[in-house]
């Protein structure tokens, strides 16, 4: 949800239209938590992304990519954390999930959890993911930095700086991954 909040705040700051829809499942028991976020320079009439129309699927859990892949445009991007939440007894083999993601021509797999821990806080893994997706969101990197400053401004400069670093490291990783 914080991913959609940061991207949405950034889009609003740029004067764009947004529509967002969220599903809050019991993620700790294997249910999904997802957001549809639509951004446009024209009014948007539905908050749901139609199948085959998503520019980006950004997932903090690899199995979730497979749950929503039918929403992706033919030339869209799948960007996923490569570390699973093994919170269900019959979680499928990770290698098979990652192999299926790799079948998509436009994909990025990133260990956002480890990167966030290396930065000093597992809480910034979502911002690492935004950094990895930043070139495909239709917003500039500078705009995303400003969105982070807006969202985290009340938490102090240290939190802002840590999230800006997470954005930078995620962005750098994605550049190297697709090079």
CATH architecture of the domain at 54-178: 3-Layer(aba) Sandwich
- Helix and strand pattern: HEEEHEHEHHHH
The overall pLDDT, averaged over residues, is 90
Radius of gyration: 16 Å
Helix content: 40-55%
Shape: globular
What's the N-to-C terminus distance?
29 Å
CATH topological fold name of the domain at 54-178: Pyruvate-ferredoxin Oxidoreductase, domain 3
Name the CATH homologous superfamily of the domain at 54-178: Pyruvate-ferredoxin oxidoreductase, PFOR, domain III
- Tell me the structural class: alpha/beta
Strand percent estimate? 15-25%
Count of individual helical segments: 7
Tell me, what is the CATH class of the domain at 54-178? Alpha Beta
Uncertain segments are none
Strand tally: 5
Biggest sheet overview: 3 strands, parallel
Strand order of the largest sheet: 3-4-5
Question: What is the strand and helix layout of this fold?
Answer:
Layout (H helix, E strand, L loop, with lengths): L1 H12 L3 E8 L8 E8 L13 E6 L2 H7 L3 E10 L12 H9 L4 E4 L1 H8 L5 H9 L7 H12 L4 H22 L1
Parallel strand pairs: 3-4, 4-5
Antiparallel strand pairs: 1-2
Helix pairs in contact: 1-6, 2-3, 4-5, 4-7, 5-7, 6-7
Keywords:
179 residues; alpha/beta; three-stranded parallel β-sheet; 44% helix
Q: How would you describe what is shown here?
A:
- With 179 residues, the chain is of the alpha/beta class.
- It has a domain of 125 residues: Pyruvate-ferredoxin oxidoreductase, PFOR, domain III (Pyruvate-ferredoxin Oxidoreductase, domain 3), CATH 3.40.920.
- Helix content is 44%, strand content 20%.
- It contains seven helices and five strands, in the order H-E-E-E-H-E-H-E-H-H-H-H.
- The strands form two sheets. The protein has a three-stranded parallel β-sheet with strand order 3-4-5, sandwiched between helices. It has a two-stranded antiparallel ribbon with strand order 1-2.
- Helix 2 crosses helix 3 and helix 4 packs across helix 7.
- The longest helix is centred in the C-terminal third of the chain and has 22 residues.
- It is globular, with a radius of gyration of 16 Å.
- It starts with a helix and ends with a helix.
- The relative contact order is 0.15.
- The model has no long low-confidence stretch (mean pLDDT 90).
């Amino acid at each position: 949800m914080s991913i959609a909040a940061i991207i949405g705040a950034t889009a609003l700051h740029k004067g764009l239209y947004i529509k967002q829809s969220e599903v809050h499942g019991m993620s700790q028991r294997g249910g999904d938590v997802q957001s549809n976020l639509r951004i446009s320079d024209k009014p948007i009439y539905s908050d749901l992304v139609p199948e085959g129309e998503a520019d980006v699927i950004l997932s903090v859990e690899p199995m979730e990519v497979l749950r929503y892949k039918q929403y992706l445009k033919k030339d869209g991007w799948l960007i996923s954390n490569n570390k699973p939440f093994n919170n269900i007894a019959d979680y499928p083999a990770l290698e098979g999930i990652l192999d299926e993601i790799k079948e998509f021509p436009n994909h990025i797999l990133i260990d956002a959890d480890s990167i966030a821990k290396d930065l000093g806080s597992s809480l910034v893994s979502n911002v690492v993911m935004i950094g990895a997706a930043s070139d495909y969101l239709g917003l500039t990197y500078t705009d995303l930095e400003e969105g982070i400053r807006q969202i985290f401004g009340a938490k102090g400069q240290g939190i802002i700086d840590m999230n800006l670093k997470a954005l930078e490291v995620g962005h750098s990783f994605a550049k190297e991954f697709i090079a």
